[in-house]
Amino acid sequence: MTTDQDIALMARAIQLAWRGRFSTHPNPRVGCVIARDGQILGEASHERAGEAHAEVLALSRAGHQARGATAYVTLEPCSHFGRTPPCVRALQEAGVAHVHAATQDPNPAVSGRGLQQLRDAGIRVTEGLLAEQAEALNPGFMKRMRTGRPFVRVKVAASLDGRTAMASGESQWITDAAARRDVQRLRAMSDAILTGVGTVLADDPSLTVRRSELGDIGEATEPSRQPLRVIADRDARTPPEARILQGGDVQIYCSARAFDTGPAQDLAALGINMTGLGWQDDGVDLAQVLDSLGELGINELLVEAGPRLAGAFVSERLLDELWLYQAPVFLGSEGRPTVALPLEAMSERVLWTVRDRRQVGTDQRLILAFS
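Structure (tokenized):
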């Protein structure tokens, strides 16, 4: 039987876990609280891959007081040796009497084994407290472990009349500074950012996280690296001098036919990861791209692309969320559409559910999912 006190302490663990939203990838975001009789003895979040997990840090801060105490953990403690020793062992050695785990770890290397090892050691285990909130900490990790693919967000900035650029391609800036700062934070939360070669050639974007534009991130751990930049480029047309190739790792997906050509090999010689994939008549095989990114350990993928590539994610229903930043402006009927989605009948319309709606500066941000 859980109490209001238990709920409050797990809520605190979830709050702590959010501190790692910019920094833990490819690891999940995890928070832990060690408490007795409602008094917090030690608390922590996981900060970066390769560093101590939340349970170990919280136990170290609780010290000898952890013996006989209760641990509140947002994710099942790991039971295997990775880059750090298993947390199950640390909890056992500390003498913790009770563990509240909000969610099971879907990682096949753990998946219930950690909780069973705690039970076998005589530690009381309770599962499922604030499970939905804890699951929301790690949509990408959870999805990748269950399906092999990352959680996909498509981001679009558009006018009230649904345009993302003028007919000439001019698009800076549709939204104001507050929305652009919000996008920087979205990038920082992502393991990878995907765009198409058309956007690279037209806009020469860097698609990096610019710390100066993140603003105040409160208690969140500073971003630990740049997201992997990913380019869908059938014919390996990305210019070697493109800004996107600077300042971090880049993955380019080209067609299998283009993989052995001179342009592809020139890019590979620059240290760019080149992968040849099957290519559909109307563009890249997005399913293969997502499978490949899952194998690379990408949990959360952000798509910042033109109407054609964004439309492909919509038409193939391969996105989990659409982030629409809508500015209070008109760009006119000749402007470029939000997505290229040639529909002819009302029966073909794409229906959305609004998960979140809020004002960001002068713009409105909608987070949408397929209905």
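The first helix runs from residue 4 to 17. The first strand starts at residue 31 and ends at 36.
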